Amino acid sequence: MNTELEAMGITEAVMNKAMAAMTADLKPLADRHGVSVMGLLDGWHDDISGAYFFGYTSAALAGKDGQELSQHAAVAVLYAFGQSTNPAVRAHARELRGELASKAYHLINDQARAAGSNPTFRALACSECHTAEYRDDLPADPNWDAPQARWRCKGCGHPFDVRDLELEVGEDWAIRDHVLGLIDQPEQEEEG
Q1: pTM of the full predicted structure?
Q2: Number of domains in the chain
């Protein structure tokens, strides 16, 4: 390991943690492009790949783990992109900001919609095969052309977006253990 890096506290363990998190976070993007994560990084401008290495290493060095490491790294990457005057880097930053905004929306929405032990939770059956539930932890099915759909049927792979839900009065959508479902909204007491 480089003694300069070690002098800054960047040990092999820190680098391994940073690389593992970066690889996990960039793998879906690399898969969409049909390359390895290293192939993806090698294909980017040096300012872009350097920002990723810096972001993940600094988050790992700060002692962050898991989702927190990824979130701190993303902020550092965006900050580095914001300092660049390179048009390719600025374009990449716009794309990343859109992805991060979408992930943040889903995280906040999921936390607000977690059904937990709500006794009224009912898994939503697939509108195609009518036998299985929609889940958000399944890979995209190549037989369906809907790469942006978040939910997939466990049985037939049919994609689904909650924006397509038609809710009855008194219903709301919720999530329990990666499964999309419906719950009854608590009745609102009228103020007298």
Answers
A1: 0.53
A2: 2
